[in-house]
Amino acid sequence: MLQETERRVQRLEYLPFGGNGANLSVSILAEPGEVQEQSAAERASELERQIATLREQTARLTRQTEEARREGIEQGRTEELHRQTELLERCATGLTQAAESFRADRDQYLGAVEHEVVRLALAVAARVLHREAQMDPLMLSGAVRVALGQLAETAEVRLRVPAAELDLWAEMLRLIPNLALRPELISDERLQSGEAVLEAQTGSVDLGVRAQMEEIERGFFDLLESREEMRGAASEQASGSRGQAG
């Protein structure tokens, strides 16, 4: 058997071809121990690079997760704010419509109540005046005196009064001082206590309690109608202003 000899790797030298004569030597092999140390160092360095890369990726993933969590929370808050805003807008719209409906119903109710109150007040006043007329047949003497004062002295005037009160009216007219125009008294069976009709060439006027109450009633209802028209015009104007604002 051949004697085992120690392996050694010799440096391979190349002689120069021309030039300045310097030796060019290249080491193509290294010692086995050097190769193993170099491989371990490279593996350690590669492992460290991988660990660093993994840490960087982990940190980046953590940041992305945190950003996504914050974005999700912010998006949830934004959506909840939108829902709350829409709910408040619906509630405000409902309240506005309810207020407008209540205002319209209130105006209609007050208009109806005003008419009923006027009718009730006039009915009470008519009953009181009729009772006063029964107790004082000459209650209309003031109205007759005012009406006579507005007529010319040369006018021919007739005063129709209830038949049962003819003498009382004649005595009353006789006792009125400074009466420039004295009407002709005419008894009328159709008239009741508290009624009197003054007739002239230009026309006639009913001075009775009933006629005066009817005139007062017409005046009241005309006033109520004008107020309703003004209220309706104001409501339309307010609605138009709200529409332009909206």
From TrEMBL:
<feature type="coiled-coil region">
    <location>
        <begin position="37"/>
        <end position="71"/>
    </location>
</feature>
<comment type="similarity">
    <text>Belongs to the FliH family.</text>
</comment>
<keyword id="KW-0175">Coiled coil</keyword>
<keyword id="KW-1006">Bacterial flagellum protein export</keyword>
<protein>
    <recommendedName>
        <fullName>Flagellar assembly protein FliH</fullName>
    </recommendedName>
</protein>
<dbReference type="Pfam" id="PF02108">
    <property type="entry name" value="FliH"/>
</dbReference>
<dbReference type="GO" id="GO:0044781">
    <property type="term" value="P:bacterial-type flagellum organization"/>
</dbReference>
<comment type="function">
    <text>Needed for flagellar regrowth and assembly.</text>
</comment>
<keyword id="KW-0813">Transport</keyword>
<keyword id="KW-0653">Protein transport</keyword>
<keyword id="KW-1005">Bacterial flagellum biogenesis</keyword>
<feature type="domain" description="Flagellar assembly protein FliH/Type III secretion system HrpE">
    <location>
        <begin position="93"/>
        <end position="215"/>
    </location>
</feature>
<dbReference type="InterPro" id="IPR051472">
    <property type="entry name" value="T3SS_Stator/FliH"/>
</dbReference>
<dbReference type="GO" id="GO:0015031">
    <property type="term" value="P:protein transport"/>
</dbReference>
<dbReference type="GO" id="GO:0005829">
    <property type="term" value="C:cytosol"/>
</dbReference>
<dbReference type="InterPro" id="IPR018035">
    <property type="entry name" value="Flagellar_FliH/T3SS_HrpE"/>
</dbReference>
